[in-house]
Each structure stands twice: as structure tokens, then as C-alpha cells.
């Protein structure tokens, strides 16, 4: 078993029915999600691990394969090995997958094996963890402080951020880190919208109001498609007063 936030992943081994499957249980909604039977392991599942940072789950089996799943229990990647792994675990951050094979531990770098959205997430996590080196402050002699004016001492003892100081150029690597982080956010938003679109759960934020003109234009287009030409209707009305009665004659000509 493995826990990923509120999701519980359980690997089932049933040799009598040759079923070696991974099932996801949502502990909040009390529901479960299965995958296609063709995505199951062909032999006993030997290892199960999860990566909370990336939202991934990995399983290993005696069929000498490692399968990587997303949090919706959908198969993302299948890695074929030349030996049988007995256990597996994600490294911190999910950049590597550790496999226990016999008496050895092997590392698999996932930075090039995962889908592009997960690769970008790994890069963003690496950029967030890296920071610029901070130089130690230069000690100030007390005699030098006494020789300075009050304003100079105040300016010297106050600390300033390099990013907030006017006229200071932002370091290039920090600027690139910010741009990549923003680009990653946009890509994640796009992937979420595409996923919602595939599931049929994407709705427009603004609904267009249908006016009378829109309805009239739609009706004209419908008639044009139906008759291949818009019907031209001409009506002429002749009225004569005959006592208190009014007689109307209408002549309707329709051009086909």
C-alpha cells in the first residue's frame, strides 16, 4: 500500500485468476478508480511507491517491468528491465527512482523518461530549491563608525535587498529562473484545461447572451441551408371602406 495525500493505492496479487492490479481509493469521497486490464502487470507486483511532489505512483513486478502511474491511476510509462526488481522507492523530489535488485540498489533518472509536463515540474522544483550564494557581511571597525556622520552610519547599518535597490540589475540566472517558473505555471494551467476538456468538464467563464438579432440571423442561415436561397416574400394590401367592414386582399409572391 501507498498513501498519496487522500488517495490510497493498493496492489493486489491473485495468482489463481492471474490478476496483478493496482487500485486507487479516494478516502475523502469513498470512491475507487481502476485502469484498463491491459495495463496490469503480467506477474506478481513486488514493489509500490509514491512521489507526493509530482503526484506519481510506481509499481514493479516479476515481469521485469516498472510501471509509472499518475494520481488518477492512469498508466504513464512502462520501463522494461533485464532483471526482476524486489522493491522500489522514489527519491526526494521524484527525480530518481531507486530499485532493489537482488543485493544491489540501482538508480533510474526520471528527468528524461517522464512526460513533458512532469519534466517541466522537475525543472521548476530544482530552480526553486537553488539559491544565489550570499556573501558574508564585511566587518566594520568601531573607529570608522565614530568618524562617520549620523546619516552615513544609518545608511551603512541598514540592510537592503539587491532586488529592491534602485538601479541594480537583476542577476541573469535569477531572471531566467523567474521566467521559467512563470512559463511552467502557464503550461500547467493549459494542461489542466486540456484535461478538463477531455473529461467534458470545461465550461466557458462567460456565456454569450442571445439577442433577437442573433435569433433572426440564425433563422435566415437555417432557411438558406434548407432552401439554398432565402425566400423573398412580398405582400401588398388593398383596403376599402365598405360601411363598417374592411376588406383586405393579400398577394404573396414567393421567389424560389
From TrEMBL:
Signal peptide interval: 1-18
UniProt KW keywords: Repeat, Signal, WD repeat
Keyword Repeat: yes
Stored InterPro entries: WD40/YVTN_repeat-like_dom_sf (IPR015943), WD40_repeat_dom_sf (IPR036322), WD40_rpt (IPR001680)
SUPFAM superfamilies registered for this protein in UniProt: WD40 repeat-like
Ranges: WD repeats: 38-70
Protein name: WD repeat-containing 97-like isoform X3
Organism name: Pelobates cultripes
